[in-house]
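Progress against Task 2.4 (sequence-to-structure conversion) is shown through the following example record, which the project officer requested during the mid-term review.
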Amino acid sequence: MSRFGNIGKGVEELTTPCFLVDLEKVKTNCYKMQENCNMYGLKLRAQTKTHKTVQGCILQTGGTKKGLVCSTLDEAEYYADAGFEDILYGYPLIPFHLPRVAALVKRLAEFHVMVDSHTAVESLLNTLPPKGHKWSAFLKVDCGGAREGVWWESDKGIEMAEALNKSPNIKFMGLYVHCGNSYVKNVEETRDESIDRVEDFVSRLEKRGVTCPTVGIGSTPTCRQPGPKMKKLTELHPGNYAFLDVQQNTLGSCTLEEIAGCVATRVIGHYPHRNQMLIDCGFTGLTKQGFGNMKTGYGVFKDNPNLSLCKMTQEIGTVEDLSGKLDFGKYPIGAILYILPWHSCATAAMYPVYYVLGKDERVAEEWKPTRGW
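Structure tokens generated for the chain above:
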């Protein structure tokens, strides 16, 4: 059975494993995030990397098709082809990227890059932008997330911002912070600490005569759990919120019922002598992210919370019952089960098409994500 051309079908007619999306939940998740931004007068710049689809971005932007941040140039080009504007390539710029960046700058009214190294700044300073355009650059600042970005206390970032701001060929857009530490620390404390740190950085820049038009933070945990200090910002740039996942649930970002994406899988074998059954979803259908907690495993079985996906090979998953003896009669061979993924970004990346279910639980749309870099 082809993975495409399944609109109108029920889940029982689909080849498994497959990735299902609840359209109403995605709409609600996008609406709630926009409301969080409205509450504090902030712009929403939607991160696209969770779903990488045109349809998802239309919902994230409320139909305006403006204001995205992408993790790959492939995504940026894909959305430019689809008529989106105001796109940020939110990934550390290196000189190798410049030809593709220049092409996007030339074709869009607003295309931005993100820098966090002197090498990237020098490449912009020493390379003329396309005629009639300027490079547009955000400075990435590390406020504790320990990924990319100049450390917030260092003068290195101050020097970069000054150099960008002085160049006649560059438009300095401001600061970009990812609160990745909100995944391992208290969310509210991390959110407010990040805002305090980026505010300190802004203050130091202002003393040097550099204004930051945009000051934004991201990460779904911090943006799903907003606070009054966000009034000091201008922009939020979360991404996972469109689908959500079990990891977000463990962080208090959502309930299990709000998770919009899940994997449908079928039971393929019973093994009473070891009290296990097998399903047709291995790590190529879910990824191995998240294992460490036997209750959540690699994900949570929707409507069957006592089941645990305890082991996976490439195409096969091993399932046990956390409450004790597995009742094989409840899960006949061929029966469909649904797994809420630990990390929806990684799981969605396993599939060439998402089956989007309408209110009647039948396939209403097929979303085909872009892939590559």
